[in-house]
Design a protein that fits this description.
Layout lengths: L5 E4 L2 E7 L1 H18 L6 E6 L3 H8 L7 E11 L2 E10 L9 E9 L3 H11 L5 E9 L12 E5 L5 E2 L15 E4 L1
Parallel strand pairs: 3-4, 3-6, 6-7, 7-8
Antiparallel strand pairs: 1-2, 2-10, 4-5, 9-10
Bound molecules: inosinic acid.
The site of inosinic acid has 18 residues, from strand 4, strand 6, helix 3 and strand 9.
Length: 180
Amino acid sequence: MQRKRIIKVKDKSFTISISERALKRQIKRVADEINRDYEGKNPIFLAVLNGSFIFAADLLREINLACEISFVKLSSYEGVNSTGTIHELIGLNTNITGRPVIIVEDIVDTGLTIARMLETLKGHNPESIDICTLLLKPSKLQVNLNIRYCCRQIPDDFVLGYGLDYDGFGRNTKDLYTII
Ligand code: IMP
């Protein structure tokens, strides 16, 4: 189906940048890497809400390991900017001690959210922790992170769709759009 090239969400306009189809291709590639790297293990995927809900659903359905998924909810963004302050809205409610953990994130921007999460999770003594992100803005990273699984690197522009929002809206947009 032909999608709109330009959309308006609240007061901002966005142009299409990555199609749902292209995203799903990259998600399958990353899922295949995880299936290979975690063979014989039972990882627990820890998806960071809200933005990762669509990515996590698509990723998990490409995973053929015996695995679990749990959710945490963090928030650092207001409008189109990171505030630098991470709020934990729903905490970890699963025992990860001795388990291999894979964090599932929609986008790594400054990296502060994931860095904070890593700190918290390490306190629970998991067997290992890997990061799996749909998108990465390498030029915005403020911390040193080892991101093992990344579907797409993107430029330093605000994006929306495929689960990512602008001020709460646009998460249901099928393709990924960039602000103009
Ligand atoms: P970080 O802590 O700066 O890495 O920010 C991570 C979080 O900010 C992500 O999980 C998103 O919720 C949000 N975020 C960062 N960049 C964007 C964007 O371009 N569009 C929508 N949300 C974003």
